[in-house]
């Protein structure tokens, strides 16, 4: 390379913001380093963006990341751990997702099977589990000593905190059974926030030629009402990918966040030329207008290798960590963004 060309390239790279590292790119929520590494190695050993996304999320499932991904965490009101997951192909706009999945550990694998083995987008509950078993996934008990202990302590604490409202007997003093109360009251106040009660691995993978995949995996909110499905398996809420633009993924209070489709909004903003950081911030601010105390964050990446993140500032949560792996480093790097 001529000296002048080399110097020009160095100058160009020095002027780029720190949130740009070229392609390929793997970015995911939280400090889930092993998931990032697995996805990157899969991609760089010839795997597809879907392979990388699936194996990265599966790594988190097997490690039970933060107790909020995979088996043995977040028991519902019956003490059962159920799983949600989604995978999206930004080339074809195909999506596969599962919600309230029981007995099957590999939720992201089942989500991919929904995408590739059916014409549907989302399967839920017992029927999703039966589908998974028919596709060759092993049925296993998702309960562990840790999840059982968590459930027992919750029962001994009069089933608090929980997600019931406008019911009797009073959920502040009883575990139910619950019946509708005579008077409906709007209760939008936020209870004590446990940031580890809502964690999700959300991941975006972009290969050298700009093809994008995005996905999620989680065991949902602790002590949720049985049958509850959060934002993670909902396209546009938990994650979204479009290889013409980029991808986004969310984590946090799914019952609130899913109402605003933050991942879809962020991608659409990037489509208009908005940089990833600003796109993430706008998606968070849209929710904040209506629920100023919600807990949540969004990561974004575009097809040039730019990336960003944003989170809502609440007590005990003033910054958000996320992982990035690109050609600028030989290992995944943890980044953090101050919440707004």
Question: Care to describe what's here?
Answer:
By secondary structure, the protein is of the alpha+beta class. The chain has a single domain, classed as (Glycosyl)asparaginase (Glutamine Phosphoribosylpyrophosphate, subunit 1, domain 1), CATH 3.60.20. The chain has an eight-stranded mixed sheet. Helix 2 packs antiparallel against helix 3, helix 3 runs antiparallel to helix 4 and helix 8 packs across helix 9. The longest helix has 15 residues. The radius of gyration is 20 Å and the shape is globular. The N terminus is likely disordered. Belongs to the Ntn-hydrolase family. InterPro entries: Ntn_hydrolases_N (IPR029055), Peptidase_T2 (IPR000246).
Please tally the helical runs, counting DSSP H or I stretches of 4 or more residues. Answer: 9
**H/E order of the elements?**
HEHHEEHEHHEEEEEEHHHEEEE
Task: Compute the number of strand runs.
Answer: 14
Give the name of the CATH superfamily: (Glycosyl)asparaginase
Largest sheet: 8 strands, mixed
Uncertain parts = 1-16
* Class computed from helices, strands and strand pairing: alpha+beta
Gross morphology is: globular
Integer-rounded radius of gyration: 20 Å
How many domains is the backbone divided into? 1
* Spatial gap, N to C terminus: 44 Å
Q: Looking across the biggest beta sheet, what order are the strands in?
A: 4-3-2-8-7-1-13-14
CATH architecture: 4-Layer Sandwich
The fraction of residues assigned to DSSP E strands is 15-25%
Share of helical residues = 25-40%
**Which CATH class is shown?**
Alpha Beta
The overall average pLDDT, rounded, is 92
Tell me the CATH topology: Glutamine Phosphoribosylpyrophosphate, subunit 1, domain 1
